[in-house]
Amino acid sequence: MDWIKLLNGSRFGEKRKVTGAACRTTFQRDFDRVVFSSSFRRLQSKTQIFPLPKADFIHTRLTHSLEASCVGRSLGAIVGAQIVQRDPGFFKENDINAETFASIVASACLAHDIGNPPFGHSGEDAISAYFESEKAMPFLEGLTEKQIADLQNMEGNALGFRILTHTLSAQSKQMGGLCLSCATLGAYMKYPKEVLPIRSKCSNASERKYGLFQSEKDTFIKIAGELGLKDKSEDGNVMFNRHPLAFLVEAADDICYQIMDLEDGCKLKLVSYEKTYELLMNILSDDKEHVVEVCESLIDERERIGYLRAKAINSLVNQCAVAFMDNYEQVMSGEFDKHLVECIDAREAVQTVSDIAREQIYYYRKVLEIETAGYEVLAGLLHCFLNAVFCDNKRDRQIRMLIPKQYLDETLGKYDRVMNVIQFVSGMTDTFALDTFRTIKGISLPSY
After folding, report:
1. C or N: which end of the chain has fewer Cβ atoms within 10 Å?
2. Same CATH fold, 244-339 and 3-116+155-227?
3. Is residue 329 pLDDT above 70, yes or no?
4. pLDDT digits 0-9 by tens, 403-429
5. Does CATH place domain 3-116+155-227 in 3.30.230.10?
6. d(C-alpha 255, C-alpha 249), whole Å
7. Which CATH architecture best describes the domain 244-339?
8. What residue segments make up the domains of the chain, in order of their start?
9. pTM for this entry
10. From CA 123, how far away is CA 138, in angstroms rounded?
């Protein structure tokens, strides 16, 4: 793989040449397009870990995505500067600098959770469970094995790629979703494969999940060709090597959710201050004496944890950048396929944080209760809206009127119409999904 192709700034889906202000690069405009999209805005009221949070300091998908983009920008800048230094003349001649890498990684990080449904990762499980139930069987009739596998193994990463690249109505004059650059779309794609074969226990990080539905398979093949990604497809199953910058996007996400979930758990007193302090200190690679002195000068425990969190993130960013450059040749040849956080000095300390979070935060009773309720809400909404799309009695016609018109293109095939309903329901915020479910079921009526 070579950087001229990998940093391809051509926009997917845009037929005309768009010229912007000289002060804003293509990749900076990618960032802005994500920020101003309605799908990104709705992350403000979507669960990160704690569903329907009443405390204003707890992270949502929106704040997590913004923080991941900041960390990704730093990672991209550090790594980009070192890559450019390897051949300064070549990169200068092609107008590529550290900011190029930083902007692409930041944009991809900003979009990395844009396809997540309501109620956190349990939302994906809830959609999968619905399509495995007997109630959903009529909507699976006539679909291919892979199309059914898409629905029964719902994946937010694939739904995000659909949002970024897919235009709902076949009649639209503007195709290509948000029309982002090929480079940003490549960096976004952490799992460049279709649903089958399922390899959740694979040692290769890029194969543990999938990143493209059947509806976007041809789209990704085209983008992968533009970027020069290595084709690993076999037996008719699409699979490519990752874009090198996807490793940095993944690392930024890993760093943010590990550290910020721990901080949230401490604020909610699910993890003790003493344990949180210890876990964050163990991540630091150097300068611990100075960090201890600063912490001792801070009166409030929350300030101390906030300061330690910042130092831990900085340490992990630097360690992940080192890990990327240590494996640079293997990354570029497609031989490297691990989480960067698995290759750093603090990997055991990070794993301990992950274990504590799983035991004391993710399995917290209130989290589990609301996630379980999410199963009922999402299954109920999917069933109502799918019936509204495919049936034609009076009640279904009334419910159909609640679905925005762009999701109701009757010229599409069955699979694509089902996918549109999934995209509509998955795009809801936690509170809107809950309110809509209550209204449709007659549990409560909307107020005006």
Report:
1. C
2. no
3. yes
4. 999 899 888 999 999 999 999 999 999
5. no
6. 10
7. Orthogonal Bundle (1.10)
8. 3-116+155-227, 244-339
9. 0.93
10. 22
